[in-house]
Amino acid sequence: MTRRINVKERAEAQSTRMSSEQQAAIRMVANDLHRLNQSVMRAVDAGVSVEIIRSARHHGGTRSWGDLLVPIIIAGNAEEPAPEESLAEG
């Protein structure tokens, strides 16, 4: 049976193979995602439904890539979409 490594251990192991510039970029992404999650919760608490979907993929040219995101906003007391409706195509 293989031992499962938790997220923190995996992130620490990966960060030892990253340059300081890469580590700073990842910290920025993590901080921005935390703020995004807080904003989504605030919007939901205010009565707005929010779905984040991938709009495109950015390729860095050195085998690195990242998903670009856009929000789908539904104001008011809208019903939750069926699972197949909430998945972005692609």
UniProtKB/TrEMBL annotation:
UniProt name for this protein: Uncharacterized protein
Organism of origin: Martelella lutilitoris
